[in-house]
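Quick bug: Glucosyltransferase output formatted oddly.
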Amino acid sequence: MTGDWVECGKVEAAVRRVMVGEEAEGMRVRAAQLSEAAKKAVEEGGSSHSDLTALLEELKASKSKALA
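Here's what came back:
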């Protein structure tokens, strides 16, 4: 395997940053908010669900026109 090496001290600092302290708590809160928003988007009536449904309807209509 090839690639760039990262010093262990930098890895340790990054892990501590996301695991400990105020900044870590903020990251966890933001991750929870984004998780909830993503769940709502894919639920029936959510933005992603609605957009995918519209795309499927458009594809069905295009297929019907092509076969006519």
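Actually, after a second look the formatting is fine. The chain has three helices and no strands. Closing.
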